[in-house]
Amino acid sequence: MSGSSPLQMSVYSVHESEVQAVLEVMKEEGLDLEWSGGGSSTQGLVLGRRYGIDETPLSGAYDLSTALLQRAPSAVFKLWQDPVGEDDGHFVAHVPGVGTFGADCDSEGTPRTSVPELISQLADAPEGMTVREWLAGPGTEALGTAVLGALASYEEAHPS
Description:
Elements (H helix, E strand, L loop, with lengths): L3 E10 L5 H10 L11 E3 L2 E3 L2 E8 L2 H12 L4 E6 L7 E7 L3 E7 L5 E2 L2 H9 L7 H6 L1 H5 L2 H13 L3
Antiparallel strand pairs: 1-4, 1-5, 2-3, 5-6, 6-7, 7-8
């Protein structure tokens, strides 16, 4: 996969001691700090606002999420990079204390799980485990339900 595509990111919460680190990472990755949305401000960072860049290398989602996790571990965020051609985009969400979830996604940032991957994970489940048990256990990580569920409360508090 080569080329570039748009990338979007929203930060919903961050400890005040890490706000500057978030802003620095955003600038380093080329995100437009005036891109769009409303939200509440935290020292120049508007919580819930969608920030973005129109064209960034396809490693942008990985680079941005890695930098945020290292330099602002208290940040609650989601980001996604749009698909290019036949290739899916990439989605990452992080909620401290809950975890980080990454998946392929569409151009709206909706995570996708491939059917073959899902079948493989279900086939690897212990014998006798029901789908309900899998969804409550290993499935929470595979489908990101714990992270996405926790993120939803932050999104509701900071509608864009």
